[in-house]
Design goal:
Layout: E1 10-12, H1 13-20, E2 24-26, E3 32-34, E4 39-41, E5 43-45, E6 55-59, E7 63-65, H2 75-84, E8 87-89, E9 93-95, E10 101-102, E11 118-129, E12 134-141, E13 148-152, E14 155-159, E15 169-176
Parallel strand pairs: 1-9
Antiparallel strand pairs: 2-5, 3-4, 6-15, 7-8, 10-11, 11-12, 11-15, 12-13, 13-14
Length: 185
């Protein structure tokens, strides 16, 4: 899911899903090569979700390519330089639900479902730093007790729910609710 920090510093997960499934035109350097007519062509593409698993893993796109990142370098070094030094971190806060993420609006197969298809957050992988050097931590929910723990290298501590949603969130782990508990309000 793509984030655009230049236009917003706070987004919600719904905006990320909408950005992911928005139609995009590929042109210029991103043109598609047609192996039938042997030419590069402008095209449009659209990505959509068609079904959902029991465990849903959402990766937020926290790094984006800076324009002109190769600094005139060519060849393999230029490509590697652009991949590493040409990336910028997106620190936008993405607000995401910890409970009752209803996937019906975002999944084609679920669009006509009368009952919500709920997911509950069970873990978050966080990234601090840049692409050149960073640090990962995690917050995980004990599904037996409902308590959250924060993992930072060899340290584990209790974690309040208010610390889970943060600008460092990078990968979100959701678990689908069983059908018998989906209608709980």
């Amino acid at each position: 899911m793509t984030l655009d920090a230049r236009s917003q510093k706070t987004l919600n997960l719904s905006a990320c899903f909408n950005g992911y499934s928005a139609e995009e035109t590929l042109g210029g350097d991103d043109q598609w090569y047609c192996n039938i007519c042997k030419e590069h062509r402008d095209i449009t593409k659209k990505m959509e979700l068609y079904s959902v698993p029991k465990i849903l893993i959402l990766q937020l796109k926290r790094f984006q390519q800076r324009r002109g990142a190769s600094n005139g370098r060519s060849g393999m070094f230029g490509h590697m330089y652009a991949q590493i030094a040409g990336q910028e971190k997106n620190d936008a806060l993405v607000e995401f639900p910890m409970e009752k993420l209803d996937m019906r609006p975002y999944v084609r197969k679920l669009a006509n479902e009368p009952e919500p298809v709920y997911y509950d957050l069970i873990g978050v992988s966080n990234h601090f730093g840049s692409l050149n050097g960073g640090h990962y931590t995690a917050s995980c929910k004990n599904i037996m007790t409902g308590e959250w723990s924060y993992f930072n290298d060899s340290n584990v501590s209790n974690c309040s729910k208010s610390k889970i949603v943060s600008p460092a969130a990078y990968i979100l782990f959701y678990r689908k609710r069983e059908a018998s508990t989906s209608s709980d309000e």
